[in-house]
Design brief:
- By secondary structure, the protein is an alpha/beta fold.
- The protein folds into two domains: 3-135, 3-Layer(aba) Sandwich (Rossmann fold), CATH 3.40.50; 149-209, Orthogonal Bundle (Arc Repressor Mutant, subunit A), CATH 1.10.10.10.
- Helices cover 53% and strands 14% of the residues.
- It has eleven helices and six strands.
- It has helices spanning 12-23, 36-46, 61-71, 86-94, 110-118, 126-137, 149-152, 156-166, 171-178, 182-196, 201-209, and strands spanning 3-8, 27-33, 50-53, 76-81, 99-102, 123-124.
- A six-stranded parallel β-sheet has the order 2-1-3-4-5-6, sandwiched between helices.
- Strand 3 (50-53), helix 3 and strand 4 form a beta-alpha-beta unit.
- Helix 3 (61-71) runs parallel beside helix 4 (86-94).
- It is elongated and about 60 Å long.
- The termini are far apart.
- The mean pLDDT is 86.
């Protein structure tokens, strides 16, 4: 059975290369776009089996992934990107992506990877597997410090919020990154301050770093 695909990437030459690889491997590209808005509109119009999205296209591929997953849960979302950043990887998975493939992967395997997703399996570039395993084996591990007793008191979501705030993101930016409302972010921060028995964020950061 032919795998029906909508793809979105702002690099036209790369789209042509990907289309060629897909069509040589049992896929039909129904439509192409160059932005997140294109991705959502074309996926809604064509109802493909897979939406294949770049992350850093205009409007954010992660935003498109979240919207497609919400509006069309029957469509599998797979990211095809150059980014090996952990934030991009985990944000994409949280947004509903079933696959995260790198553009330097062998293009002849792309069709098989999409079929694996449709069969109910995830698709992840091999070099990223260790990062996912590490995240789940050590959910309270600090990116800005070692594991601390204070960190172990937080839920996974509270940890994500504090980690992003410690990187200098504003409340609204954290909300966008985690697909939350700013009010929910503030509630998480308030809960963390109560758990750690401190009065402000900076005090919480020091405890979480183990200063």
């Amino acid at each position: 059975m032919t795998t029906r695909v909508v793809m979105a990437d702002d690099h036209a030459r790369l789209r042509a290369h990907i289309r060629q690889a897909l069509e040589a491997n049992g896929c039909e590209v129904l439509a192409e776009g160059a932005s997140a808005d294109d991705a959502v509109a074309l996926t809604t119009e064509h109802r493909p089996d897979v939406a294949l999205l770049d992350i850093h296209m205009p409007g954010s591929g992660i935003r498109a992934a979240a919207e497609i997953s919400r509006l069309l849960p029957e469509v599998a979302v797979v990211m095809l990107t150059q980014s090996v950043e952990e934030d991009d990887l985990f944000d994409a998975l949280r947004a509903g992506a079933s696959g995260y493939l790198l553009k330097d992967s062998d293009p002849t395997t792309l069709g098989d990877s999409l079929r694996q997703v449709l069969a109910g399996n995830g698709a992840l570039s091999p070099k990223l597997v260790a990062r996912v395993l590490d995240e789940f084996r050590a959910p309270t591990k600090r990116r800005f410090g070692r594991t601390t007793p204070a960190a172990a008191r937080l839920s996974a979501r509270e940890w994500e919020v504090m980690q992003l705030l410690a990187q200098g993101l504003a409340t609204e930016d954290v909300a966008d990154r985690l697909f939350l409302s700013p009010t929910t972010v503030r509630v998480h921060v308030s809960t963390v301050l109560k758990k750690l028995r401190v009065k402000d964020r900076e005090s919480a950061f020091r405890l979480l770093r183990g200063d």
